[in-house]
Amino acid sequence: MLTVIIMHSRTVAKVVEVVCEAPGVKTLILECPVMAVKAKPGQFIMLWLPGQEEVPMSLSLIKPPRLIGVTVKAVGDTTRALHALSKGSLLGVRGPYGRGFTVAKLKALTIGGGVGVAPLAPLAEEIKAKGGLVTAIVAATTAEALIFKERFSKVVDELIVATDDGSEGIKGRAHEVLDSLLSGKSFDMIYACGPEPMLFEVVKIASRFKTSLEASLERYIKCGVGLCGSCAINGMRVCVDGPVFTLEELLKMTELGKFRREASGRKVSIE
Ligand SMILES: Cc1cc2nc3c(=O)[nH]c(=O)nc-3n(C[C@H](O)[C@H](O)[C@H](O)COP(=O)(O)OP(=O)(O)OC[C@H]3O[C@@H](n4cnc5c(N)ncnc54)[C@H](O)[C@@H]3O)c2cc1C
Ligand code: FES
């Protein structure tokens, strides 16, 4: 408990810019020096607005010494309230939390689906800064739902765009693109974030090609510090043991792609 208090901070952040990324998806750029100097790619923060729930968000921008960013898909009351913020708005922040991605000089492949692309952007930037090579698969259902294409194109060695409906880039789902890419190329590490059905397939593919994988999972986060058990998946707590898990850990998760828990703790199936 004492360690938790020492490691994480609570503070107030100020919105300095709002960027519309796609219909229903906005990036809030926040002035938040405490998080900007501490956070690592793949970690998340808890955001709070008066009258709303406190919600977890991955960091899509880490720019020490002052700025961080979160890229928010509007799906309910709190995320809609976050979308309504403008330059100068204040919000409560605590974190940074969880185990992030391994940042090293590697031949890396990032694969992101939908808003899951967001935490992979600071990761790709840091791997490049360390002298690594990065291929990125940026995928979405349609062309208009694609995010961060330009940001990735500025930093990565190869950018592969894919859409489910073929409206831009390769027609096909992200994991199908991964499967055909790995048939011709090898990588030291795959980094993945996106909808759980996509991650479920990515785990199987990485295992088949015997390639190391780190994937970021989502579960219902309440405390964020490993105390309440709300975020458990097969005995692992997403808030402290993850949200980034290794291939070996993911292969042991029998609930992956099958079950998640609601706010009440009730187990529900993942379609
Ligand atoms: C580690 C982590 C990182 C995340 N990063 C991002 C991100 O970068 N961008 C983004 O748009 N979304 C992200 N999410 C999901 C985001 O937290 C939810 O979309 C948000 O909490 C929805 O809140 P709401 O009140 O708008 O919607 P609600 O109507 O309350 O819920 C809509 C959906 O969001 C889920 N949800 C609600 N509250 C939580 C919670 N406390 N923890 C987890 N899921 C919840 C619900 O189960 C439901 O499926 C992340 C979730 C986790 C666990
Ligand atoms: S959210 Fe409470 S243990 Fe993870």
Summed up:
The protein has 271 residues and is of the alpha/beta class. It is built from 8 helices and 18 strands. A hairpin with a 2-residue loop joins strand 14 (232-233) and strand 15 (236-237).
Report on the structure:
- This protein is globular.
- Helix content is 24%, strand content 35%.
- The chain folds into two domains: 2-97, Elongation Factor Tu (Ef-tu), domain 3, CATH 2.40.30; 107-269, 3-Layer(aba) Sandwich (Rossmann fold), CATH 3.40.50.
- The chain has eight helices and 18 strands.
- Strand 8 (107-113), helix 4 (120-129) and strand 9 (133-140) form a beta-alpha-beta unit.
- Helix 6 (174-184) runs parallel beside helix 7 (196-208).
- Mean pLDDT is 95; it is low at 1-6.
- Strands 4-3-7-1-2-6-5 form a seven-stranded antiparallel β-sheet. A seven-stranded mixed β-sheet has the order 11-10-9-8-12-13-16, with helices on both faces. The protein has a two-stranded antiparallel ribbon with strand order 14-15.
- It starts with a helix and ends with a strand.
- It has helices at 2-7, 33-38, 77-83, 120-129, 149-155, 174-184, 196-208, 247-251, and strands at residues 9-22, 25-31, 44-48, 54-58, 61-63, 67-73, 90-97, 107-113, 133-140, 158-163, 170-171, 189-193, 212-216, 232-233, 236-237, 244-246, 259-261, 267-269.
- The chain is an alpha/beta fold.
- The site of FE2/S2 (inorganic) cluster has 12 residues, from loops.
- FE2/S2 (inorganic) cluster binds next to loops.
